[in-house]
């Protein structure tokens, strides 16, 4: 924003922690404000004002005590921040009247005071800042414009600038000395030979702007960060509030989703330039509520992968600016736009009616049960969220706040879904001994909230004295579909009594910097969750597509090179994980070569860690019918192994189909059975039933499907 100002308010502050270049990096509160008015046109100066600010936490760092010379007793008698800001406003207004001025711009020594201290602290304390705090001059940059030979603006300090201009420092209290030095530098820059004019002040965005992003757009990697550890219910506005004071690019917040389409606690944020990105990195481990947020560098390609879109329908949907986006999940497949509008009602009108609805569909046009809705204001969106889990047809509907980036992610995910679904290769090979029981005896415990870096050794240390009561191969780490820890684990104990004692004594015990919840459960409940079901306060939900007539799919475990197997390595058989209701048929097939699935470490052999796909909360019913196709290298490895070894034998289901159209092909039959589990090599197990002459003349009318 370009502007010219004739009146400056030289502004200086200090916090209870780090100061100088690290001001605001430790989240400590403001304890000192000093200011003075400078009339640039008439070369007049106002009085120097020094105000102490009482923080909520009166603890001072040693550096603060040394730099400011302040004590806890002095600060305890000071006014809180909101009253000090009122005094600041009143003092400036009265002095401006005496000078015949009515506007001014702040001038600070660097951006940290305004961007990293004033705005974040005011946001946390729900204070409304005056307009003057949304624009300021950075004296270092103004100095660099006049004296580029002195070095970069980031490396400048008050003492280095004063030394370059041959100014002598004055002895005074902390804050007053800095303000007087800043005023002397300003006066020097206004004089010959520079005759500097203070123009083009910096601004602080007061509101985050939503918008769409194209895959063809160029995103500078020096402007993107990754925030990790976000609450799952946080929105783009919450993230923008966390980075309050820094300018985020339009549509620059992208909440990341996991493979189940749910938020995974991470977000990519794009800032307007590198300076703001660097200031954002200084907020590493700052708090959002009670959670600390990790902030790391990211790349422009990562950002475009999340938010970039090419669909004209999505671009048109997101072209309406300043709209609140709500995501609806669980819609009946037959739901129409009129049904959705009727469900929302008149108290939350949708922007532009049917044009404000975007239904998510598969590439073949089938509905997914998801939709996005636009609302003109926050009030309408809140009214819509009140309908969370209300019934439409025979299904309850979930409603969540959403973002433009989430719209792109969901559409990209479903539009890239293959028409013929394939299950991904297992993360771990299948094992041969039934260590997972399915009884109702509550001799197991569930650990929830584990650190993502927790290992089996950490769990054993966490269990303490109860480690001796764990069954052999009884520690089961649960990973999500990306193969990363989900924060959950199941442990099989030797008896229900020992499981009860573990749940009583270890519940909410600390592991590193997190407390872990411990619940007693049964082997059946554990088996259900390990197979993809859910276990929560609402009860037990079975795994998706767990049908009585289907057995677990068998997979051929493959390795690029021969693997050394530990002597007591635990390996599973598919029947041990989900028991089939039918009696397995005897077979003489040769078993494939076994594969070790964890490192051959002495202390890791005692307890196996079975891995499965398990969604992190919040969870809703999902299907396993649509997974991304396996990479070409994986498919090639499976094919290579299939030519050398047989799969594990398991019961199959034989289905005969009659009355098929004569032009029916394999693809149509697979689509007919969409939603049922097939082993990867069963897609070609379609046997035509017909006489030889008819098979030569026309397609068969009957097929046998294995």
TrEMBL record:
Keywords: mRNA processing, mRNA splicing, Repeat, RNA-binding
Cross-referenced InterPro entries: ESRP, Nucleotide-bd_a/b_plait_sf, RBD_domain_sf, RNaseH-like_sf, RNaseH_sf, RRM_dom
Domain (RRM) ranges: 223-300
Family statement: Belongs to the ESRP family.
Full protein name: ESRP2 protein
Organism of provenance: Polypterus senegalus (Senegal bichir)
Source lineage: Eukaryota, Metazoa, Chordata, Craniata, Vertebrata
Gene: Esrp2
């Amino acid at each position: 924003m370009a502007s010219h100002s004739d009146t400056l308010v030289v502004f200086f502050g200090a916090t209870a922690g780090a100061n100088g270049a690290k001001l605001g990096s430790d989240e400590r509160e403001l304890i000192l404000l000093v200011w003075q008015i400078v009339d640039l046109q008439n070369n007049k100066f106002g009085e120097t004002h020094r105000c102490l600010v009482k923080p909520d936490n009166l603890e001072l760092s040693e550096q603060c005590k040394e730099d400011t010379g302040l004590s806890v007793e002095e600060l305890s008698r000071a006014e809180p921040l909101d009253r000090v800001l009122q005094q600041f406003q009143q003092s400036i207004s009265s002095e401006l009247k005496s000078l015949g001025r009515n506007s001014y711009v702040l001038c600070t020594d660097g951006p940290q005071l305004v961007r990293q201290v004033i705005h974040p602290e005011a946001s946390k304390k729900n204070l409304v800042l005056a307009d003057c705090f949304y624009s300021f001059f950075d004296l270092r940059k103004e100095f660099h414009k006049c004296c580029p030979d002195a070095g970069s603006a980031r490396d400048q300090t008050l003492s280095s600038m004063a030394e370059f201009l041959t100014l002598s420092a004055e002895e005074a209290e902390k804050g007053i000395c800095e303000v007087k030095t800043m005023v002397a530098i300003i006066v020097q820059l206004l004089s010959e030979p520079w005759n500097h004019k203070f123009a083009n002040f910096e601004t602080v965005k007061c509101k985050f702007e939503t918008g769409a992003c194209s895959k063809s757009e160029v995103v500078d990697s020096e402007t993107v960060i990754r925030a990790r550890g976000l609450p799952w219910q946080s929105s783009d506005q919450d993230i923008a509030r966390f980075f309050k004071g820094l300018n985020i690019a339009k549509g620059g917040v992208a909440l990341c989703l996991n493979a189940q389409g749910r938020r995974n606690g991470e977000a990519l944020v794009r800032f307007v330039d590198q300076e703001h990105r660097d200031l954002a990195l200084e907020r590493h481990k700052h708090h959002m509520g009670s959670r600390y947020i990790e902030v790391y560098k990211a790349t422009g390609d990562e950002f475009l992968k999340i938010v970039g879109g090419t669909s004209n329908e999505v671009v048109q949907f997101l072209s309406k600016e300043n709209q609140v986006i709500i995501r609806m999940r669980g819609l009946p497949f037959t739901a129409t736009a009129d049904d959705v509008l009727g469900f929302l009602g008149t108290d939350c009108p949708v922007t532009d009616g049917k044009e404000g609805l975007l239904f998510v569909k598969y590439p073949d046009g089938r509905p997914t049960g998801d939709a996005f809705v636009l609302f003109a204001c926050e009030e309408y969106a809140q009214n819509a969220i009140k309908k969370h889990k209300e019934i439409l047809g025979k299904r309850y509907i979930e409603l969540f706040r959403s973002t433009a980036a989430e719209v792109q992610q969901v559409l990209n995910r479903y539009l890239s879904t293959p028409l013929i679904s394939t299950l991904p290769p297992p993360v771990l090979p299948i094992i041969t001994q039934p260590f997972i029981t399915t009884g109702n005896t509550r001799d197991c415990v569930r650990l929830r909230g584990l650190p993502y870096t927790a290992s089996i050794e950490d769990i054993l240390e966490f269990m303490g004295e109860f480690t001796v009561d764990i069954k052999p191969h009884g520690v089961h780490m649960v990973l999500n579909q990306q193969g990363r820890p989900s924060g959950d684990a199941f442990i099989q104990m030797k008896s229900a009594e020992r499981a009860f004692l573990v749940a009583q004594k270890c519940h909410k015990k600390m592991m590193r910097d997190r407390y872990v919840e411990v619940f007693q459960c049964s082997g059946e409940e554990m088996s259900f969750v390990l197979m993809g079901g859910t276990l929560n306060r609402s009860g037990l939900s079975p795994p998706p597509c767990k049908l009585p007539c289907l057995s677990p799919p068998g997979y051929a475990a493959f390795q690029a090179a021969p693997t050394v197997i530990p002597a007591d390595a635990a390996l599973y058989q598919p029947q041990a994980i989900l028991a089939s209701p039918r009696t397995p048929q005897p077979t003489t097939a040769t078993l494939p070569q076994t594969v070790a699935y964890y490192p051959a470490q002495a202390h890791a052999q005692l307890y196996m860690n079975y891995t499965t796909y398990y969604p992190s909360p919040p969870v809703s019913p999902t299907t396993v019918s649509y997974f991304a196709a396996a990479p070409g290298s994986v498919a090639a490895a499976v094919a290579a192994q299939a030519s050398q070894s047989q799969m594990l034998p398991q019961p199959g289901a034989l289905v005969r189909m009659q009355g098929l159209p004569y032009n029916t092909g394999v693809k149509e039959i697979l689509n007919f059975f969409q939603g049922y589990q097939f082993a990867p090599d069963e897609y070609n197990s379609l046997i035509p039933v017909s006489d030889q002459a008819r098979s030569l003349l026309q397609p068969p009318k009957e097929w046998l499907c294995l």
